[in-house]
Specification:
The longest helix has 33 residues. By secondary structure, this protein is mainly alpha-helical. The radius of gyration is 17 Å and the shape is elongated. Helix 3 packs antiparallel against helix 4. It has 5 helices and no strands.
Length: 128
C-alpha cells in the first residue's frame, strides 16, 4: 500500500485515539460526579461525551471509505482489524490500532461500571 495512504490512515486512527481519550476522561469525571452524588454534573458530562464519540465515528467512517477506495483495501482492512504489520511502513498504523483497542477496552470497562451504577438492574450490561 502506498505510503501516503498509510499515513492518512494513521492520522485517522490517531484522531480516533484522541477522541477515545476524551471519552475516557469524561467518563472518569462522570464516575467522580456519581461518587459526589451530583446528578446535574452526571447529566452534563454524559451529554459532553457525545461530541468525541461522534468524532471517533467520523474518523472510523473515513477509514472505511479508504478501505473501499484503495486498490489494496484488504491489506488496510487487515491492519485496521488488528493485523500485524508486514513492514516498517505499516508498523505505525498497526501500533496505533493496538493502542486504540487497549483504550477502547478500558473505556468499555469503565462504561460497564458506570452503567451498572446509574441504571442498576436496568443496565444494558445486565444479563438475565
Amino acid at each position: 500500500m502506498e505510503l501516503t495512504r498509510m499515513m492518512e490512515a494513521q492520522v485517522q486512527a490517531r484522531r480516533i485515539y484522541n477522541a477515545l481519550g476524551e471519552v475516557e476522561s469524561l467518563s472518569e469525571q462522570v464516575a467522580e460526579a456519581l461518587d459526589r452524588n451530583d446528578p446535574v454534573a452526571v447529566k452534563v458530562l454524559l451529554a459532553m461525551r457525545e461530541e468525541p464519540i461522534l468524532a471517533a465515528h467520523h474518523a472510523r467512517d473515513i477509514l472505511r471509505q479508504m478501505v473501499a477506495d484503495t486498490d489494496d483495501g484488504g491489506r488496510l482492512r487487515a491492519l485496521l482489524n488488528g493485523g500485524a504489520a508486514e513492514n516498517a511502513e505499516e508498523s505505525g498504523l498497526a501500533n496505533q490500532i493496538a493502542m486504540n483497542e487497549r483504550l477502547l477496552g478500558q473505556i468499555q470497562t469503565l462504561d460497564r461500571a458506570l452503567s451498572q451504577k446509574i441504571a442498576r438492574e436496568k443496565s444494558i450490561y445486565e444479563t438475565k
